[in-house]
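User: Sequence in, structure out. Go.
Assistant: Echoing your sequence, followed by the structure tokens.
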Amino acid sequence: MTTTITGLTAAEVAERVADGRVNNVPDAPVRSLGQIIRANVLTPVNGIISTLFVLILIAGYPADALFAGVVVSNSVIGIVQELQARRTLNELAVLSAPKARVRRDGETIEVGISEVVADDILELSPGDQVVVDGDVLAASGLELDESLLTGESDPVEKHEDDQVLSGSFVSAGSGYYRATHIGADSYAAKLSEEARRFEMAGSELRRGVNIILRWLTFIIPPASVLLLLRQLSDDAIVWQDALQATVAAAVAMVPDGLVLLTSLSFITGVIALARRKALAKELASVELLARVDTLCLDKTGTITTGEISLSSIEAVGDTSDAHAAEVLGALGASDPSPNATLQAIVAHYAAPEGWEVTRNLPFSSARKWAATEFGDRGTFYLGAPDILFDEGDVEEKARAADAAAAGLRVLLVTRADEGWNDHELSPGRTPVCLVLLEDTVRPDAPEIFAFFKEQGVQLKVISGDNPATVAEVARRAGVDGADAWVDAREIPDDQDELADQLETTTVFGRVTPHQKRAMVHALQSRGHTVAMTGDGVNDVLALKDADMGIAMGAGSSSTRAVAQLVLLDNRFATLPRVLSEGRRVINNIERVANLFITKAAYAVLLTALVGIAGSPFPFLPRQLTLIGSFSIGLPGFFLALAPNESLVRPGFLERVLRFSLPAGAIAGAITYGLYEWVRRLDDISLTEARTAATMTLLAIGLTILVLISRPLKPWKVGLAAAMAASYALVMAIPFGRTYFELDLPTATAWYGVAAASVIGSIGVWTASRLFSPEATNRA
């Protein structure tokens, strides 16, 4: 084919470029600088805080506007981090972007998809993604998978003059097609640039946070209005003080840093992976793998390095070694786009003279064999021995089984007088030789699989190779249960029965692409979160439907297009790091959410109590800012970015509410009770009563900080101690006491503060044990 199709000339390409007939691919939906600024500045939380800032200025208390600094910090940190992530991902996307092979001036060259012009002749090989629409000019067993377009997974044969649609990919065969529809009209304009997409993808964490924010959106306005009206009804309270108290309550109810720290955790996780050459296409990718409890692996390119080498050939029957070598050389030369297996054969055996190809059927993962017809010399098949052997080939089957059991990849060459008919094997096949190939197990595979086992992730090895070979390779790689393998030709079609078998079996061989996808679906039907790794065209269907698709950078462009995570340097050892990053994100956001929702809970309760009692609000806005900074904001920032590899459990929102609501209720009730008691003591000013309430709430807040930081480490204890020392420093400095309107109370009040702090801390600790999901399960 390559000798008869010359393609466009350089002058014709230049003419089309000048006319604008170029495949100008629209930018993927990456936010511009203006959009990033607007998205981080014009947020609901910033809007609420800004409104409260205006109200406190109207009330005439600018010193209480310290809380408005969160608008600046939220915006600046969010913008800087997203710009850094965008720059990092754009740099990596260059490595992952698909390429097109075009014929120009009689030669095949590789160009970026945006350099394809109208009427270009593009070359197709197995695993290639069709990047523009076109018409087939020549085909050799060309089969396209159009499941990304139509949802139909059966390969579609393509012949001369047939149309090919961008977004499909080559499952078998090879060919050439002429580009007809390019640019924005091409489906590939959306799919091929997917690697550059940077979006806030949905996740359990983000859904949980958004639900909490929606609830607070309904709670904060009526609670604030109730408090304001109640304060205004007291003739002793002027409207400025009433507005000041309302602002203080509303500020406390707003989880001002929760959204920022959630997004910051995701972004830093993505950046950390990018530095290890792992391209996460969505922010939630780091969370998805952390939730995975089942990892499905293809053998080639994942457990092994993907480098296939020819070990030896064994002539069968009356075939001589010389004739076997001649047949292999002819078969290797017959395929214009040889796969890795044929390339290993071609490297050892040159094409013989006089072997003219009259018909060729390339290898297909579904069929498990390829065939070439050489005129009077007959038809030769190359493929899986257990598919090509006849019942009478007992001795040859035993030899193949022994080689497979030793971990070698075994192929069989057979000959028949007649050719195949509609992808059906011809009868009367005679074995010619066994082809023994070697796969190299990744040296770090045993350590990686041991890590996943320790982390509670079950492994499923699903490969199209001989199950005995797959089992031996898996055993050498340290996969548990590799000795008990199953031939996928014997697995049930029923999803429930297949799920039952998957629960008890680890290694599956002779798995077709459709079966790989069915296995993913069966595991998902049992509640498993499934990740699939692969690098070949036979993995695309399973990668697309898995909860987390992971592709190798050296794999086919089609696998990279559908995967959520691409390991650009092909280092399988990156996966434990991805798992660790995901667990850090999930567990730390849960910790931070506990802090912010606890604050919102005690603020809502205090607002309700004050609204009912009609007493002055226990805090000034600046005092609540002080409490929030030392017990929530500053420690939350460190906790959100700290290492955390604890096992991930489902039920994020339920756990947060089980901890935060009781803790917040106890903190609010104890603090309000202490405040009212101190306020009624003799010779106690309102400032002293508020100071006592501030110390009590801060002490209980630091206890909550320690509780959500478990398991405790020295630096976590030190963090809580540093926050307590910071407050003590504010109290010790005259300017600090003056600015925050803090005044040391009497000795009696001190005793009350100490008692309330101890009672509140014990209460919070007890509630954390009584209302945790673990305690409920024990009951």
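User: And one key feature?
Assistant: Residues 574-613 form the longest helix (40 residues).
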